[in-house]
Amino acid sequence: MTLAARLRVRMAAGDARGTVFLPGDDIDGVEDMRGTPAAVLFAITDRAEPGVLLTRRTETLRAHAGQVALPGGRIDPGDDGPVAAALREAEEEIGLPRHLADVVGIADRYRTVTGYDVTPVVAVVPPDLPLVPQEAEVAKLFEVPLAFLLAPENHTPRTMIWRGRERTIYEMTWDDNRIWGATAAMIVNLARRLAE
């Protein structure tokens, strides 16, 4: 069975197992916060030991400067839903040709504390593509082993104060890359969905 086929099966089984997912950041106790629609791409490389493509945002960006993120952004009016948006953003940010992404499913939506309602799109991509990060947005493109990201022992909870409130976030570190906040939470959700 191919990696894409295995992921499709495991994605579909996630809800059936009664898995508890992180719904998003609790913003002043409002559970049904309507955020700006956005989408990100979990680009999983099709190799014996699959990896996930992540970016480090440039320090000059207004929002989330220097943070590790999945390729993605707002869903534009011209996008035909979150899948199209995630593929467009990945092509713009890291040069990933849309036609090379084999979309296997939609992961669990996540509301960010900064007001985005993010739909993660999961796709399998060929390994070792000659990807070129867009310099204005992406300072670094790197790949983290999927097994590392899915392992619960690497999902470290941390407490922080944001706008005067104590919040618990997740964090994981790969080499010198601190993966935290919404990106880490979406990874935790994917790990829970794909758990066997």
UniProtKB/TrEMBL annotation:
One of its GO terms (molecular function) is metal ion binding. It holds the Pfam family NUDIX. Its cofactor is Mn(2+); Mg(2+). InterPro entries: CoAse (IPR045121), NUDIX_hydrolase-like_dom_sf (IPR015797), NUDIX_hydrolase_dom (IPR000086). Residues 35-166 form the Nudix hydrolase domain. Keywords: Hydrolase, Magnesium, Manganese, Metal-binding. This is 8-oxo-dGTP pyrophosphatase MutT (NUDIX family). It comes from Sphingomonas prati. It comes from the Bacteria.
